[in-house]
Design brief:
440 residues, alpha/beta, 38% helix, 5-stranded mixed β-sheet, binds pyridoxal-5'-phosphate, Aspartate Aminotransferase, domain 1, 7-stranded mixed β-sheet, 12 strands
Length: 440
């Protein structure tokens, strides 16, 4: 990931230590014949692979192409395509595989916008989704109808980090596909944004397609929005045409930043994030006000064995990721229901006073971010569904960054302390904690 593929069909940059950035909406074509050849070959497999004929950025573009080669390699997939955002990638992957009258089977907790796409956007085009608990193989089997074409999930699931056993889903889908003709077979799509390919490569366990929000762990710095689909070669041309016509293509400038900063630093950032995450999760577990902590790296994590099996780096070392989910206090203020709940006071205190933690959605960045999924990222899910699945108003999602873990723990300790949660945050408290002064 640090060196990347130094030479590819897209462009030979083997004399550059840092790959160059292209920025050209259109490309010079030399002759009408060469232009015609470029158009004829776009999204077609040619028997004679030669240097690509670039025509226009939205079709294919070399800097983005280099990132795509490296992403396919990182995930152990055959091909990759980059999109303007994670949602553009997810909608492209889904829409190339289903048409009007067909169905998606999805896990019943999803990233908020994916849920909104499946529950309100796609039904307008005659594509329905059956939401089921995909940790339950029998429920999955029962949900698959003759119209089903996709099984879709995240693992770890955003936000409460439930794991879905990819190989188990694969075996149910294989049984079903054995009875179908090849055109109707079901594809498994996994959103691997939370784990990143450093911690988990779903294709190894049987996923057909992997989607990413490059905005998160892979991009790593929170400076660009982007997405990717890693897919088998037989779907590549359909995805390419979808991207050309729907137009949600990743800009080469964002691709370059991901290629030069994001992917090469992924391993180093992830190993630091997860060291921090383990310290922070253990601290939270020991805190009397914290009712529940879910982090796949904790031995108390309900699916710890599956985590150890499924979440590993390329050398086989356990990689439980950077995300922690925890529940603090009761979810409403019993004396005066209109007032802030203890959990809200806690997060507001963090937002106003923390040294190392910011209240913001997103994750996988160099800065530690906290958010409340119930009110923020998962606001689109129906309340009853959220509560049933453990997405509670008192819960916070923490995405660890590169700060010293002791600083993060100090922030959480102060904000969870009795003074902070009774009074709420005070701007007067916004100063550097004694712990930091000592460290300097
Ligand atoms: C952020 C996110 C997305 C959407 O990505 P964007 O780049 O914001 O469009 C999809 N899935 C997960 C798990 C995410 O965290």
């Amino acid at each position: 990931m640090i060196h990347g593929l130094s030479r590819s069909r897209r462009w030979d940059y083997s004399h550059h230590v840092v790959p160059p950035m292209t920025s050209s909406a259109a490309f010079r074509l030399d002759s009408v014949r060469r232009g015609a050849q470029g158009f004829a070959e776009f999204a077609h497999d040619t028997s004679d692979p030669h240097d690509p004929i670039y025509i226009y950025d939205r079709l294919e573009e070399p800097t983005r192409g280099m990132l795509e080669d490296n992403l396919a390699y990182a995930e152990g997939g055959e091909t990759a395509l980059c999109f303007a955002s994670g949602m553009a990638a997810i909608s492209a992957a889904v829409c190339t595989l289903v048409k009007c009258g067909e169905q998606i089977v999805a896990h019943d907790v999803l990233y908020g916008c994916t849920y909104s796409l499946f529950s309100t956007g796609l039904p307008r085009f005659g594509i329905d989704t059956r939401f089921v608990d995909l940790t339950d193989n029998d429920a999955l089997r029962a949900a698959i109808t003759a119209q089903a074409r996709i099984v879709y999930f995240e693992t770890p699931v955003n936000p409460e980090l439930t794991l879905i056993d990819i190989a188990a889903v694969r075996s149910v889908v294989d049984d079903e596909n054995a009875r179908r003709n090849p055109d109707d077979r079901i594809h498994i799509i996994v959103d691997n944004t939370f784990a990143t390919p450093h911690c988990q490569r779903p294709i190894e366990f049987g996923a057909d397609i992997v989607c990413h929000s490059l905005t998160k762990g892979i991009g790593g710095f929170g400076a660009d929005v982007g997405g990717a689909v890693i897919a088998p070669r037989d779907l590549y041309n359909r995805l390419l045409i979808f991207r050309k016509d729907f137009g949600g293509v990743l800009s080469p400038k964002a691709a370059w930043a991901t290629l030069v900063y994001g992917l090469p630093s992924l391993g180093a950032r992830m190993s630091n994030y997860q060291k921090t995450a383990l310290h922070v999760a253990r601290f939270l577990e020991s805190h009397h006000r914290v009712e529940k902590v879910l982090y796949p790296g904790l031995t108390s994590f309900p699916q710890h064995d599956l985590a150890k099996h499924q979440m590993k780096d390329a050398k086989g070392r356990f990689c439980p990721g950077s995300m922690i989910y925890f529940v603090i206090g009761e979810d409403r203020n019993v004396e005066s229901p209109a007032a802030k709940s203890p959990a809200e006071r806690f997060v507001d205190h963090v937002a106003e006073n923390a040294y190392a933690i910011s209240l913001a959605v997103s994750l996988g960045q160099v800065k530690t971010l906290i958010e409340c999924p119930f009110f923020m990222t998962h606001a689109a899910l129906p309340e009853a569904e959220k509560r049933r699945r453990g997405v509670l108003p008192g819960a916070s999602r923490l995405g660890c960054g590169l700060e010293d873990w002791e600083d993060i723990v100090a922030d959480l300790q102060r904000s969870a302390g009795p003074d902070a949660t009774q009074q709420g945050g005070s701007a007067l408290l916004r100063n550097r904690p004694p712990l930091i002064l000592l460290r300097i």
